[in-house]
Amino acid sequence: MPLNVYLSGEIHTDWREQIIEGAKGLDVTFSAPVTDHDASDDCGVAILGEEPNKYWHDHKGAMINAIRTRKGIEGADVVVVRFGEKYRQWNAAFDAGYAAAKGKSLIVLQMPEHDHALKEVDAAALAVAREPAQVVEILAYVLNGSLPG
Length: 149
What we know:
The protein is α/β, with parallel strands linked by helices. The protein has a domain at about 5-35 and about 75-145: Rossmann fold. It is built from 6 helices and 5 strands. It has helices spanning about 15-20, 35-50, 55-75, 90-100, 120-125, 130-145; strands spanning about 5-10, 30, 80, 105-110, 125-130. The protein has a 5-stranded parallel sheet with strand order 2-1-3-4-5, with helices on both faces. The longest helix has 21 residues, at about 55-75. The model has no long low-confidence stretch (mean pLDDT about 95). Pfam families: Nuc_deoxyri_tr3 (PF11071). This is YtoQ family protein. InterPro entries: YtoQ_family_protein (IPR019884). It comes from Aliiroseovarius pelagivivens.
């Protein structure tokens, strides 16, 4: 049984690459948001025209990015949402909530120091992992019933 996995969340570390590399040999297809920060921020004005007001600049980009995000989450069997060390990742929290509302199997990837702040998000998840390798182990178990080691 193949799995479609959507990798959402922070874009400043290589966690996605670690999961994709670790999952080689598993019947998994990955998708993700645009992880080029500048392209993601500026897609709206690059496509639809300049905006002098930063609010509308960001709004245009958010709406266009939402097309990709909705498609990715809706087509996924499993959604992995990574909360990183830096920045307030409201978009990641929104993606986790959207995935939960759509009934998607949700894996949250976060550091222990975020446990309290993310307790509601974690309550909607089927697993809370600390390392990308644990996500790979979950996928391997789901697909093959095999335990790590």
